[in-house]
Design goal:
There is one protein chain. This protein is mainly beta. The protein contains two helices and 36 strands. It has helices at residues 2-13, 54-59; strands at 40-43, 65-68, 71-73, 77-79, 83-87, 93-97, 105-107, 113-117, 120-123, 133-135, 138-142, 145-147, 158-160, 163-167, 170-172, 175-176, 182-184, 192-196, 199-201, 204-205, 212-214, 219-223, 226-228, 231-232, 239-241, 246-250, 253-255, 258-259, 271-273, 276-280, 283-285, 288-289, 296-298, 303-307, 310-312, 315-316. The chain has an eleven-stranded parallel sheet. It has a ten-stranded parallel sheet with strand order 3-6-9-12-15-19-23-27-31-35, with no helix packed on it. A nine-stranded parallel sheet has the order 4-7-10-13-17-21-25-29-33. The longest helix has 12 residues, at 2-13.
């Protein structure tokens, strides 16, 4: 595990911080309308908006909808209320926290309805849960990329204890101990994880749930997703679903994921199921395990139902 985070730290030390070219953190623009009550606000690093930092706009409770101009915003956002953040374009609008160890976005209020859209979220390394995002509210990602984040604990990309919807988004290249892309551990069993028309790829964990980790007794649904090239050193290269969890997967592809490249280690290259799982119209192909269940491994008293699925070209030692 430490080899992964030594690499992440080395990358962090090599980042060139051109901070002298950025406006001072926390500086509001000279726009006289900032003080006026409004529902829509703008953020622009260059000073052309209502604010120059995203956090200042979030802290203005009159700003229900915040539009963020293209740029790289080196911020660690804390959100405790209902708000929508929309970037100019996912390719050009980045919330990228590289100034210290920590995450890029924290939603700390249960029930807070937050939407992030058209943004790329990045961070270097966090020593707490959620490498990029930690959510305790009702979070929706629309057209968002969560990229290249790392934590020494759970949820390399996203750590979720509330409701989480990932729609038309990409979760890629993240690292953790458990749940490389997403770690779903709802604080209430009524909270769910929903993944729709999204890509979960190239995530890595030292233990379980390379792409997605669903904790025991939690619920989730995956529709129209591509889950590929994720790696877990123990269980569930693509997906780990824990004891008593309930997961429905439809119209998706689970491809070339790996649970341990070491012989006699690893369960469920594509999927590890410890609870109840239904799969329909889904392709499970090219996954591998160093021990059992190249495509799917069912543990304990689990139940797995397949309807109209193709399971092919998966490999395991046993």
């Amino acid at each position: 595990m430490m080899r992964v985070f030594r690499l992440a730290l080395a990358l962090a030390l090599g980042v060139q911080l051109a901070l002298t070219s950025l406006p001072a953190m926390g500086t509001a623009t000279h726009n006289p309308e900032v003080a006026a009550r409004r529902s829509a606000c703008t953020v622009d690093l260059g000073g052309g908006g209502d604010y120059t930092t995203v956090q200042d706009a979030i802290d203005d409770t009159a700003c229900d909808s915040i539009t963020i101009a293209a740029g790289e915003y080196p911020e660690s956002l804390v959100i405790s209320r209902d708000v929508t953040l929309t970037g100019e374009d996912v390719e050009t609008t980045l919330i990228y926290y590289y100034l210290d160890i920590g995450r890029a976005v924290t939603i700390d209020a249960a029930g807070a309805e937050v939407t992030l859209a058209n943004l790329t979220i990045k961070a270097i390394l966090n020593d707490d849960v959620g490498g990029c995002i930690s959510n305790a509210g009702d979070l929706t990602l629309e057209g968002v990329t969560v990229l290249g984040c790392a934590t020494t604990t759970n949820g390399g990309g996203i750590y979720n204890t509330g409701n989480l919807t990932v729609a038309g988004s990409t979760i890629a290249g993240n690292m953790a101990a458990y749940g490389g892309g997403i770690y779903h551990s709802a604080s209430s069993l009524a909270y769910t994880l929903t993944v729709v028309d999204s890509i979960i790829e190239d995530n890595f964990v030292d233990y379980d749930g390379g792409g997605i980790y669903i904790n025991s007794s939690r619920t989730g649904s995956i529709e129209g997703a591509l889950i590929q090239n994720n790696y877990a050193d123990k269980k569930g290269g693509g997906i780990y679903s824990g004891i008593g969890a309930s997961l429905a997967i439809s119209g998706s592809a689970i491809l070339t994921n790996t649970s341990s490249s070491t012989i006699d280690s690893g369960y469920g290259g594509g999927i590890y199921n410890g609870g109840e799982m239904t799969l329909s119209s889904t392709l499970i192909q090219g996954n591998s395990s160093g021990f059992e269940g190249g495509g799917i491994f069912g543990g304990g008293a689990s139940a797995t139902t397949l309807d109209g699925c193709q399971v092919s070209s998966n490999a395991a030692v046993y």
